[in-house]
Amino acid sequence: MNLFIVDKKADIKKYNYLITEIGNVLEQGRKQAFHSVNTILITTYWKIGKKIVEFEQHGKEKAKYGVSLLDNLSTDLKLKYGKGFSKSNVYLMRMFYLKYQKFQTVSGKLGWSHYSELLSIEDDMARLFYESQCLKENWSVRELQRQINTALFHRIALSKDKKGVMNLSKRGLLVESAKDVIKDPYILEFLNIPENYKYSEKELEQKIINNLQMFLLELGKGFTFVKRQFRITLDNTHYYVDLVFYHKILKCFVLIDLKIGKVRHNDIGQMNMYLNYFKEEENSSADNEPIGIILSAEKNNFLVKYTLGGITNKLFVSKYKLYLPDKEELKNRLKELVDNF
User: Fold this and answer.
1) In the chain, what are the domains?
2) Distance between CA atoms of 53 and 321, rounded to whole angstroms?
3) What pLDDT sits at residue 1?
4) Helix count (H) and strand count (E) of the chain?
5) Angle formed at CA 323 by CA 165 and CA 339, multiple of 5 degrees
6) Which residues pair with 293 in a beta bridge?
């Protein structure tokens, strides 16, 4: 039972405000404490990694890497200092220093769990990209794992030239135009639809709605959900856009239609009609031209090319896949792109 009793409404309001203010101070303190502990942990692990590398090298620039050293260190450090020195963690500390020899390049905004995932990426360009995106989009460790597993870097990079790939690695994805938000393919493994299962477009749409948070993660930064089955009425005929989003950075509507088979020329024509309608009827003076994305299980590149020819609207056709991509295949394709440019 509370010993402090308030009688007046004004006092109750002030008291509730006090509770809220104390909660805000507590939450801020917890965040600062977490940030401080995280910074100390990362600094400590970097310094340990440096000590290991310096011991290995004995002042030499190139020293033979000895697995037995890390095994022995793990065993002895656990005995003397307790948990935190598993073989994998000791290996990561060493790798941490090797990949980030200038400590100024280490971000205090990412936790050790983030860096543990980043250090599992062999390719330096890909690692820099994921680190940059992690900071820009505030990914959790789970979200970072998902983006690595779906080969996000390679999927985006394959749509660019060599210079674009290099910039993507150094700066992350800069969303400046409609093309910057388009992927091909989109990976929808989180829907958990069996590969050989016969599903309808309605089922696909419902699965996406049920997993909207993951779908937004796949779409990328800036997307907000507006409505499903957005109705458009023309000459007493109703048409329905499967999914409508708004992109906060590009300041435009993004319309998505789902196709479980091959995209057809009339599908493209219909999306073009939707875009024209939105420009005339839904856009405000502050909105830019809408973007249309047709997501299809299959597409004929020549049909898409010739049907899109002459269309001035921002209309794109991309494939979707219900399973994780073959990362080795994507790596090889990207290597060919960069080497042959």
Assistant:
1) 11-100 (no CATH), 121-178+326-341 (no CATH), 186-324 (3.40.1350.10)
2) 43
3) 45
4) 13, 6
5) 25
6) 256, 316
Tokens standing for residue 88: 């994998």
Cβ atoms of 289 and 314 within 8 Å: the answer is yes
Q: Which residues have C-beta within 8 Å of that of residue 334, sequence separation ≥ 6?
A: 154, 157, 158, 165
Residue positions counted in the chain: 341
Name residues whose C-beta falls within 8 Å of residue 205's C-beta, 6 or more positions apart in sequence.
228, 229, 242, 243, 258
Which stretches in the chain have pLDDT values below 70?
1-10, 18, 34, 58-67, 340-341
Angstrom distance (rounded) from CA 152 to CA 129: 9
Q: What is the pLDDT of residues 187-215, one digit of tens each?
A: 999 999 987 889 999 999 999 999 999 99
Model confidence over 104-136: pLDDT tens digits? 889 888 999 999 999 999 989 999 999 999 999
Q: What is the C-alpha end-to-end distance of the chain, expressed in Å?
A: 75
